[in-house]
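Re: weekly structure request thread

Next one in the queue (292 aa):
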Amino acid sequence: MAIEEPVFISGKEYRIERIRGFSAYATAKLHDGTITIKIPIYISGERAAKVFQSLKRRMVRSLERAKEYEPKPEYLNFYDGQVLQIMGRVFAIKTVESANQNSQARFKDGTITIRLASGLAVKERERHTYVLSSRTIVKNILPDVTARANQLNESHFHFGLGRIRLKEQSSRWGSYSKRTNIINLNFRLLFAPPEVFDSVIIHELAHIKHQNHSKRFWKLVLGAMPDYKERRKWLRKNGNLLGVFQKPDPVPQNEALSATAIQEGEQMLQVADIVNAQEPKQQNQGGARQGI
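Done, posted below.
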């Protein structure tokens, strides 16, 4: 094994290893910040050097392209009185004070009511409101997202599609796992224009057939969506703002609406230690109660 000069992409260092093996093809793989380029032993001399440089250039271009479309981590926030329109549905957020030690969320008739635990600092209140709201939204909107992915798949590909998951991710808009046949989509995409959201779904659907960014992959993507590049250009420019909302000035206390009673039979989420939560987990479809 030979260690080559590392490359830097968007400020991140990637180690490069060159190894020889008995494989039939030359390959390049990325794992844990290291690019490993494997050259078969039957390729030698100048040809081996050319194959190595070619694979290295292709891998670097792929990483640079991927970095262009990475969402920039911005603070996502939801607040009392906010009304969100997602895939034709309305989600209104309402926060009320509670004497409980745990924060809870209930969803009914388009309103997410957050009962905030007592004694929370401002940042904790914001975090509880965001996590409980986002999980409630994911649980209720996931069937719509899955239906849209199935519709696009049937219209363009007819691949065997497994599950769709919505996750809060800081480094990817979407991903596909061949092992599990699951497509992961970034939660922020719920706030993108429908045509932009569709472009990410098409991208990940194409990975079912090609787990790379080869010419055949892009031919498949552009065949299904000729204006794909324009849609992703919008995402590259505006993606870091998705899900970031400007909170209005607080309403004077005497003008604030009183909290409505929370009725039985509503969907409920409960939080025991929400501060350490990092991302929304997959919602269970079988029950109304979900812990964080």
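The first helix runs from residue 45 to 68. The two ends are 45 Å apart (CA to CA).
Next request, please.
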